[in-house]
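Job type: complex structure
Entries:
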Amino acid sequence: MDLGRLVPLVTMRPGQRGRIVILDVGRGKARRLMEMGLLPGETVDVVSNSIGPVVVRVRGIILALGRNVASRIWVEVM
Amino acid sequence: MGEVLVAIAGSPNVGKSTLFNRITGGNVHVANWPGVTLQRAEGHIEHHGIKLRVVDLPGTYSLSAQDLGEKVARDFIVGEKPDVLVIVVDSTSLEKSLYLAIMTLELYTRVVIALNMIDAAEKRGIHIDVRGLEAKLGVPVIPVSALKGIGIGVLLDRILDIARSKIRKEPLRVDYDGLETYIHRIEKILRDEGTLKRYPARWAAIRLLEGDEVLLNELREEDPELAERVKYLREKARIDLGEDLERLAISSRYSLIDAVVRSTVTRVKLAAPSLSERLDKVMLHPVLGPLASTLIILVTFFLIFAVNTGFPLNLLFDHLGYEELAGLVEEYSLSGILGTFFDWVSSSMVDWLTSMGYSGWAVGLLSDGIMGSVGTLASFTPLLLMAYVFLGAMQDSGLFPRAAVAFDNLFKKFGLSGRAFFPAALGMGCSVAAVVSTRAMDDDRERMVTAMTSPLIPCQARLLVLLALASAAFSNPLEQSALTISVYLLSFMLYLVTSKLLNKFIFRVDYAPDLMMELPPYHRPSLRVVWWYARSNTEHFLRKAGLLIVGLGVATWFLLNFGPSGYLSDGNIADSFAASIGELLVPLTSLIGLPDWKYALAFEVGFVAKEGLLITFSAITGISDPVEALRAMDLTPLRAVSMALAMNYYVPCLATVAALTTELRVGKYVFLTVLLEMVLALLLAGVAYWAGYLLGLA
């Protein structure tokens, strides 16, 4: 995998799709995210992203993620 | 067959509470889980002549024991060993909601899976092979719709089948791939040494590898040396596999879910862009979102206020020149009707008791002391109930989480996340509800801070006092509304600003916690669910605070009607114990321009419940209409402003202090909350009064 192609989730535009690669958010939060279905290898669709939390669809559910967390989730854009 | 213990587990937003409510028919008792302030609902029913005790476990995404809810759910399953565990999953998103089911099936086998929202799944062209799912998971799967009441009878039948069955099943096996060798080794150690016997050995082994600290501590207590060996193995596995073990374990469970879903779920048509998506275009918009959320809250509370107190309709009609209509709105508001009713009951009691030949103070105690407090409680109840109905509807519809997203950006500047919206909104109903709601916060510091600051938001009881003050002191409806609205705006500002100050100076952090929250699809709120939520919360409150309020009401009556010389048959309150107690506080109330023991006493009584302020004025003046009573207290507009500010902030009411004590569990923080409010009250009311005084407004 070419790590140079990874972007933080927070930089993605609404309508873009990507694959989660790295959750660099600390253990407790990573566990919570993974248990909610957002784990490396999953496909995410960005629903909305402007000034507030980034809203994504993953595994058929919609998650709102604070911008700080979203800037530490690394995604391969598809 | 004795009583069957049934527990219901499920992730948030899968309709667990709706199913619980449907099964129990709303015949539910709400209390707290032992030792923690998490709400525990329990219901009793009978099915085919057999008694069932049904317990609603906290909604959790997993059983990791990472938070309180997860720990409570896990301890209940392992400790109480329910005869049957119902796991609720959402048919429209099995990819996600099966996670808890898989994790639970690894731990426990007396399980039936309720495939909820089956009607919605069918409507969206999602077909589920139920038999196939049963074969894959090894437990009965029953399609149900909790909302529509479909499949409940079948579910109950299967619950009884499982309760009767003696067959012992093996827990579900997930293939953990690379982890398996380590699982076997730890499993063997646990079996050989006979430790952690409460749990299936394989399950415990996996959890220990995943880094379950709660379980590791349990092991450490049983055998410290063994715990070290397990820790060593975990570290070795991590190095050998070069991977985060937790991620491997969670991925393995999701791989199984994917395989199960692939072989049992078929989608016959693609759903058109749903209403949810279109609504979210507005609700998640950076500008429209906060506007829409604010508007919805305003309209909601406009409705609650109007039905309960007539405000602001009465002021509007008054302003437009329809004084009679305004009067009617007030008279036929809920608090108006109940007030009239209890006045009538009270005076009838006086006549009746006197005719029975009872003496002066007994009549007073029964008709005034006891009946008066019951009347207060009764006039307060519909207010609370209604606030809960509206709040329940907003929660159930999926609007609440969107509002949290909308406000996240603003709240971040004060060191809070959008989640802080929930206690603020609930606080407009009742501060106790607001404080209790903070336990749902992920971030511990945010939970503490919002519990401490949410009582600043005016509750419905304070709204009543505020409206009475405004009506008594100002004749112009515009001025009346201005006072009321200013206090609300100021309170929301203080909620944010004091949160920021607490973050900075007490908890010493300057970052805002991040939102990580599921936004469930919108749906029309279910009347059953909303009603059940409102009723059980109100009942819970009444049970906790009811006796207290009546008790203190009687105590106040005693203080007002007895003095050093005994019963004050002439009703001269100035000779009462209450007057002497009030005198003690006069130095403080003088600071805010109210140098009178009557006001001081009202504040003391208001601590029990804020509407007690009005009751005191009525008791002192002998006028039952609180507005008239206040007018008889020579309340100037400036004094009304000072009083309004002081009343709102001077101390959280007794029930709120009780809630704070159980939620914060650190005396220091409870004390700090009370101190903060007192300082705010003195400061704001003092500044307002003396500034007005200097400007010649007195």
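Summary: The radius of gyration of chain A is 11 Å. The CA atoms of residues 6 and 76 of chain A lie 5 Å apart.
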